[in-house]
Specification:
Layout: E1 3-8, E2 18-24, E3 31-32, E4 36-42, E5 47-52, E6 56-61, E7 68-70, E8 74-80, H1 134-143, H2 161-171, H3 195-210, E9 213-221, H4 223-234, H5 242-256, E10 262-264, E11 271-273, E12 279-281, E13 283-285, E14 288-290, E15 293-294, H6 302-318, E16 331-334, E17 354-358, E18 362-368, E19 371-385, H7 391-406
Parallel strand pairs: 12-16, 16-17
Antiparallel strand pairs: 1-8, 2-4, 2-7, 3-6, 4-5, 6-8, 9-19, 10-11, 12-15, 13-14, 17-19, 18-19
Length: 415
C-alpha cells in the first residue's frame, strides 16, 4: 500500500514568509521523480521552481495560480511506494481522482477534511464534506452534483473521475439559471498587489515611514566623461558602459565618505557601518523594477564592474535573478536617465542610508572656460538618511561625484 507524503513550501531564504503560485508543472495523478520541479512560485525577490523531494504519484495540489501559500503550508501530496520506487507504473494509465472528496469522522487529533488525504484513510460518507477547493465547488455547482451523496469506486471509497461522470450522466442536463439584470456601473478595474509589486509597495512604505530622508542635487558637465568612454571603447577589450563608470565613481566616493555606506539598526539604537560595498542598481524587468546587487563592488575595476552589471541586467530581463542577487545591498545607484528624465527624488531602498540618482545626459548650453558652449550635461541627485550624516557630508559626497563626472581623471587618485 503506497504511503502518502506531504510536501510543504520550504523556507526560500531572506525571511520570506510565503510565495505566490505562478504555474503548476505537474498534474494530479502524474508520476514524478525525486527532486522534480512541481511548481513555479513568485516570492518578493524572484520567480523560482520548487522541486519535490518525493517520487511517486501526485495525489493533490494546493493553491491556484495567483494564490499565496505560506511557508510550511502543503504544496503537494505524493503517494510513495514503501519500497522506495514509484507508486505506479509511469507507462500505465492513471485515473485521476477528483480533488476534494469526503472523509469520515476521525479520532481526536487526526487530520480530517484535508484535500488530497491518503487514500488508505479516505472513507466517503454521505454526511461529511470537507472544505473543497474553488475549482471543485464550481464544477459541482455547474453539474448539480452533491459529492456527499456519491459512493466512490476507488480504493477505500475514493471518488474517481468516472464516479463523477456517471453522476453527471444520470442527472441529465442542468438548466441554466435565468440571467439577472444588474444596474449599470462605471467601468473600473482593480489590479491586485501580488508578488514583487506588493513587496516593493511594502518596502517603500516602510522606508518612507521610518527614514527621515533628504535630497540634494547638482548639474554636472559630463562631456569629459563621455569622451573618456568613447576613448576606452575605441581600444580592444570589452565595451565600457556609462553605468560602469558611474559605479566606479560611486565606490571611489564611498571610500572617501564611508559613513554613507551604512544603515540604522532596526530599533534605532545605532548605525551599522559596512566594511564592504554591495552596490545595488535599479534595473527594469518584466516583473517591474528590481534592484540587483553587485557584491564587493569596491574590489572591482571598471571593466569588472561593467561585466557584472551586464550579467545581472541580462538576468533581470530574463527573470532569472536569484534571491541572493536581489538582497544585501548597502548603497544604490539609480540611473533614471534611461527613462529620458532629468531629475528625481527617489525613496531609499530600506534599510540603506543613501542612493545616488543620475538623470539623462543631454546637450545643453553651458558656460565652459568663460565661454558659452554646448556641453553634455546631467543632473545628479543624492538622497540620504539624515540620521547617519548631516548636510555637509551629503553635499561633500555629491560634489566629489560631480567633480569625477566633470574631471574623470580624478579617479586616478583613487587607484
Amino acid at each position: 500500500m503506497p504511503v502518502v507524503r506531504e510536501f510543504t513550501l520550504p523556507d526560500l531564504g531572506e525571511g520570506l514568509t510565503g510565495a505566490e503560485v505562478v504555474r503548476w508543472m505537474v498534474e494530479v495523478g502524474e508520476v514524478i521523480a525525486v527532486d522534480q520541479p512541481v511548481v513555479e512560485v513568485e516570492t518578493a525577490k524572484a520567480v523560482v521552481e520548487v522541486p519535490c523531494p518525493y517520487g511517486g504519484v501526485v495525489t493533490a495540489r494546493y493553491g491556484e495560480p495567483g494564490e499565496e501559500v505560506p511557508v510550511g503550508a502543503p504544496l503537494v501530496t505524493v503517494a510513495v511506494s514503501p519500497s522506495g520506487g514509484p507508486a505506479a507504473d509511469a507507462d500505465a494509465p492513471v485515473e485521476r481522482p477528483l480533488v476534494g472528496y469526503g472523509v469520515a469522522d476521525t479520532p481526536k487529533g487526526a487530520r480530517r477534511g484535508r484535500v488530497g488525504a491518503a487514500a488508505s484513510t479516505a472513507v466517503v460518507t454521505p454526511a461529511v464534506v470537507p472544505v473543497i477547493s474553488p475549482l471543485v465547488r464550481r464544477v459541482a455547482r455547474e453539474h448539480g452534483i452533491d459529492l456527499a451523496r456519491l459512493t466512490g469506486s476507488g480504493p477505500d471509497g475514493l471518488i474517481m473521475r468516472a464516479d463523477v461522470d456517471r453522476a453527471v450522466a444520470a442527472a441529465g442536463p442542468v438548466a441554466a439559471p435565468a440571467a439577472s439584470v444588474a444596474p449599470p456601473v462605471a467601468a473600473a478595474e482593480v489590479v491586485p498587489m501580488r508578488g514583487l509589486r506588493r513587496a516593493v509597495a511594502e518596502k517603500l512604505t516602510r522606508s518612507h515611514q521610518e527614514i527621515p530622508a533628504a535630497t540634494c542635487w547638482v548639474d554636472a558637465d559630463a562631456t569629459e566623461l563621455m569622451a573618456l568612454r568613447a576613448q576606452l571603447n575605441r581600444s580592444a577589450g570589452p565595451k565600457v558602459s556609462v553605468l560602469a563608470l558611474l559605479a566606479r565613481i560611486c565606490t571611489a566616493a564611498l571610500a572617501r565618505f564611508p559613513e554613507l555606506n551604512s544603515s540604522v539598526e532596526s530599533d534605532g539604537s545605532g548605525i551599522r557601518r559596512h566594511s564592504a560595498v554591495h552596490l545595488g542598481f535599479a534595473a527594469q524587468s518584466e516583473r517591474g523594477l528590481v534592484v540587483p546587487v553587485v557584491r564587493d563592488a569596491h574590489l572591482l575595476g571598471t571593466e569588472q564592474l561593467g561585466a557584472e552589471l551586464a550579467r545581472l541586467t541580462e538576468s533581470a530581463r530574463a527573470g532569472s535573478l536569484t534571491p541572493a542577487e536581489l538582497t544585501g545591498g548597502t548603497f544604490t545607484l539609480n540611473n533614471y536617465g534611461v527613462f529620458g528624465v532629468d531629475g528625481s527624488t527617489p525613496i531609499l531602498n530600506h534599510p540603506e542610508a543613501a542612493m545616488l540618482g543620475v538623470g539623462r545626459i543631454i546637450a545643453k548650453p553651458w558656460v565652459y572656460e568663460g565661454q558659452l558652449a554646448v556641453r553634455q550635461v546631467t543632473q545628479l541627485s543624492f538622497t540620504f538618511d539624515h540620521r547617519v550624516c548631516d548636510g555637509g557630508t551629503a553635499g561633500g559626497f555629491l560634489r566629489f561625484v560631480a567633480d569625477c563626472v566633470e574631471q574623470p581623471g580624478m579617479l586616478l587618485r583613487q587607484l
